[in-house]
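Example 3.
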Amino acid sequence: MPKSLNSNFFSRPADVVAAELLGKVLCRKLDGKILRARIVETEAYFGEDDPASRASKGENKVSKMMREKAGKILIYNVHRFKMLNFVTGSEGEPSAVLIRAIEPLNFKARTAGPGLLTSALKIDDSFHGKHQHIDNLLWVEDEENKENLKVERSFRIGVREDLNIPLRFYIKENKFVSKISKK
DNA sequence: CATATGATGGACT
DNA sequence: GTCCATCATATGG
């Protein structure tokens, strides 16, 4: 039986967590069924030194949650889409990982993008601030079959001003990875 | 196949 | 009013 990831997994630097989340299985309980999907694309966000991070823009709803305990769920919206993030790092240090794309394992939906996957899994503001395995509604399971994972990294997508380091991680040649890419 | 553009709504100043 | 870590559609090769 695969086990749910615990806080220790998330209380490491955001880039480490983002890289290791690839291939893990995101689970969502919905209408009595459990939807399972492989995580295929993530991005790491840091604190005040990261111009793309909302934590660099002073105190607000997002930066506050990024300082919370690792493993908590952070939801915010861009236009009408919800973004799913997990808080990472040590408490007090703002950092988080954005889930950008997933590959459905036992259901069919369009999930090749951060706004699409939250809509497919019916994830909304009610998850904001919850710990990832509380309520058994949304959690991440470890995955044993990681031998064939080909991890690539690139600069982040859609950000106005990126850091000098690539902080986007994705599985090579996976067709559920979102398309639009710059640099 | 590629790149460009407009719609969209919540949070913040 | 401005910003934004998006998406769907339209257009051109």
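The two ends of chain A are 40 Å apart (CA to CA). The mean pLDDT of chain A is 90.
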